[in-house]
Amino acid sequence: MIAKVAIELRAKPVDRLYDYLIPEELQVQVGDCVEVPFGTRVVTGYILALESEKQAAQRELRPLLRLMTDQTPSLEPEMIEMMRFLKDRYLCTWGAALQTILPPVTRVKTSARYVLGEFATEAELGVALVAYLKRYKGATKKTLVDQFAINKRQLDTWLQQNVLRLDVSHRSRLGKRRVIAEGKQGEQAFELEVPLALSLAQEIAYREVCKALDQQVSQTFVLHGVTGSGKTEVYLQAIEYALRAGKTAMMLVPEIALTTQMMARFQRRFGARVAVLHSRLTDREKYEEWYRILRQEADVVVGARSAIFAPLRKIGLIVIDEEHEQTYKQETEPRYVVREVAEWRAKYHQAVVILGSATPSLETMYRVERGRYTLLSLPQRIGERALADVQIVDMREEFRKGHHSLFSQALTHALQEVLAKGEQAILFLNRRGYTTILLCRDCGEAATCPDCDISLTLHKVGGSSLLRCHFCGHTEPLREVCASCGSERIRQFGAGTQKIEQALFEQFPGIRVIRMDVDTTGKKGAHEQMLGEFERNEADVLLGTQMIAKGLDFARVTLVGVVAADISLHLPDFRSAERTFQLLVQVGGRAGRHEMPGRMIVQTFSPEHYAICAAKKQDYDQFYQTEMAVRKAMQYPPYTEITQFLIAHASEQVAYNIAYLLYEELQNELFGRNEVRILAAVPASIPRLRGVYRYQVMVLYTSFARVKEAITRVYRKMLAKAKSGVVITVDVNAQMLF
Ligand code: ADP
Ligand code: ZN
Ligand code: ZN
């Protein structure tokens, strides 16, 4: 038999399995972690398949070196299947798939030392070297090359002749992993709380989920309910039901910042059997939690995106809270969509998935419409607490009246009131990236692409500026007047959080502000610290980007201000209306969660836009109908899916040439298919990043199954063709287009 081994190499993406002979003394199984020779190195990998020798290539194979199962757990069959799924669906490498399903520390770092071999002689090696190797029990390759000036070819020859031998000692980055694995579970005592008596709507939803759990067929529910409608209580009780049936469960939240709150709530219900997983944990913490799950000491997992790969067995229920959030898309290889992985795992385990949201993504609702998902609703807030009163402020009016402050009169007064009463406010700015758009201050329209209905972005090329649609590549000179009203007051648009903070200090002397954005929350624990300060009333205003939009719950917040709704409304993305609607509904849900009534003030240049109007009324259905009509007319998702290729190279010409070649290959493969649209090679939304030029090619299609082979073939072909320095990445089911 031979073993087919997946190897994870950081430096270069390895995209095949490697064949090794299995020495007779080794008892290996599929999934085992093994050490193998790789070039002149020794690396670890996992056996993904066993084959009889005849099937293997005729060339000479090297044997596996040793089994690592005493140190590193073997892969469950599900994990291997899942790697195949990731590879198949997202066209990633084996290495990337392996990295994704393992916590970082199970990857053993090997440090090979050269030691004296059986045929070592002083004549061959020299007196000094022999003495050194004896004294220090070997030497690293670096030492031999640098200090003893031995070239690498010589080393290989000596290895072959057994003059030198490689001794592989294992140093995990954690040191003694066994001690850690035994960890500190059971140390903490939890005061458990009892489940709440469910409302009628909750009861109905809960029963449906329980019924599906009993039936043990995989099924997906959409739990649609505004913030405060009691979704989390339904999750908790459904999870409890699954646990009682001897199953395990998983609860995913969109932001790491939210895991802490959710974790606390889960521990009050389930105690020490809850594990938490997210990327901000230290390696040690991550490993501890991962191992607790693997050993079945924890059977409930709370976590962010990557927790979907938690090594739970017998999964009964997977909950994805705020399922519409973009953070559920992984933006590095493999570029997976959490919902898809969840559905895959649910199918494997005959488990139930709940997608919860106040504003389900259009993709999800479309599946409800088509009968693939089952809709459950919680139409009211618990205790019939009113939703925040939403006031839309027309910034065009403010401008006309000569108020040029970042804060309208209404928002200014409301802030003064909050300060006077000692209450708190959240100010929200949805600025992401550095895209600059043109916005007419008189009619509120943004400059959009004539073909795509997507905002044009401003680019500086040489000394002059031009407008570009980064979807189709359409370009035009900078507009002087507004295309819809003829006004000349057409300006670049966008303020940063820093600028708003400054304006707050100027207009409200003595105001205490906490600014939360990517600049201020980089450090570990920064989120929690800032939110804690706000909670303790150490600030009047919490000012931030989308990271403050959801899930957070503060009793003293009576005002939520959206400084410029237009920023998200006109992002150069066909999803901008959807994002804006989702955001406004979420942010509105932050106010008035407790005794004090809440209000929201939304400043915008487009008060009549359907996303803004629907958000004011919190009318999901109205928004859904309008937006779906737009998507259908333009053939955007969810009516299609988009695969995006990105080609990067230091030379713009090379990047473009490869992109063009890729475009041609796609044309050849998919010629004449009318359900497929291939967009020309155009500069990516960020055309140049760290000195590297980036081009993109996009394909829109109605069924991935029908284009998969063609897309895979073209991608592989281009990878093989591309010379060094060219980076080609693929994003199947691309979510963000800027
Ligand atoms: P969501 O997840 O939809 O935002 P939650 O489950 O967090 O809603 O519920 C909102 C608030 O209402 C929480 O404080 C929760 O404790 C409370 N709550 C939820 N369900 C009930 C219930 N059946 N009876 C009383 N209070 C409830
Ligand atoms: Zn105009
Ligand atoms: Zn366009």
UniProtKB/TrEMBL annotation:
Residue span(s) of domain Helicase C-terminal: 453-631
EC numbers on record: 5.6.2.4
CDD domains documented for this protein: DEXHc_priA, SF2_C_priA
HAMAP family: PriA (MF_00983)
Species of provenance: Sulfoacidibacillus thermotolerans
Cofactor: Zn(2+)
Gene3D superfamilies, sorted: P-loop containing nucleotide triphosphate hydrolases, PriA, 3(prime) DNA-binding domain
Biological process according to GO: DNA recombination; DNA replication initiation; DNA replication, synthesis of primer; double-strand break repair
Function recorded in the entry: Initiates the restart of stalled replication forks, which reloads the replicative helicase on sites other than the origin of replication. Recognizes and binds to abandoned replication forks and remodels them to uncover a helicase loading site. Promotes assembly of the primosome at these replication forks.
Nucleotide-binding in keyword set: yes
Residue intervals of the Helicase ATP-binding domain: 212-378
UniProt xrefs under InterPro entries: DEAD/DEAH_box_helicase_dom (IPR011545), Helicase_ATP-bd (IPR014001), Helicase_C-like (IPR001650), P-loop_NTPase (IPR027417), PriA (IPR005259), PriA_3primeBD (IPR041222), PriA_3primeBD_sf (IPR042115), PriA_C (IPR041236)
Subunit structure: Component of the replication restart primosome.
GO cellular component labels: primosome complex
Domain of life: Bacteria
Molecular function GO labels: 3'-5' DNA helicase activity; ATP binding; ATP hydrolysis activity; DNA binding; zinc ion binding
Cofactor note: Binds 2 zinc ions per subunit.
Protein residues bound to Zn(2+) 2: 449, 452, 469, 472
Name this polypeptide is given: Replication restart protein PriA
Entry binding sites for Zn(2+) 1: 440, 443, 482, 485
